[in-house]
Amino acid sequence: MLRLTQDRVPLPRLTRAVLRAAAWGGGVSMLRLWQASEPLLMRMWRVRTVRDGSILQYGISPFRGQSTVLADGTQVPHGARILHLHLDNRRVALALKDSHGNVWALGPRLDADLDHLAIDVCSGRVGSVAAVRGVTVLASMAPRFGFEVRPLPRNLRWRLIQSLAGLVIASYHAAGRAEIKRGVAWPGEIWMSARALRERVQGEP
Predict the structure, then answer these.
(1) pLDDT for 94-144, tens place per residue?
(2) Contact (Cβ atoms closer than 8 angstroms) between residue 56 and residue 110
(3) How far apart are the first and last CA of the chain?
(4) CA-CA distance, 53 to 23, in Å (whole number)?
(5) Interatomic CA distance for residues 131 and 62, integer angstroms
């Protein structure tokens, strides 16, 4: 049985070696190049900000996974149009620096971003969507914001996502390269139905 855990899981030895090598070169290191290229990649993938200055970003695309049913009964069939959530890593890093690393200090901004996204869903600005989905190593925080959290299997696919999270941490956070030596939490899948998202601003149905 899969279990969500936020225990730090060591990164593969090869990943740690790649991250150490990526830091070489100072201002022209691979980590710096990653920071410079990430906004371009987000535009290529049609990821947009929820609002000006938001921490949350999202893309819209068909759901590629197996059909699923969320906790509130919402059915999300394969191919359903959903919102895929992302974090703006640069803004997260700045916010964490201002809060001396207190990740819970992101809470008010994330709540405001989700409320703004809920308004866009209610208004039809983003079109008809079935649900909101994300994959994150911060999954243990997600229930605080109304998300359903699902653990992910420990296979190569999600190991690569964990390694990518290690790259992000090493790239953006002041103590990132020291932190990843302690490992990175295994990613979890977070879901919220469009109905639950709308209820953030509409109140109880």
Answers:
(1) 887 787 778 888 899 999 999 999 999 999 999 999 999 999 988 989 999
(2) yes
(3) 34
(4) 28
(5) 11
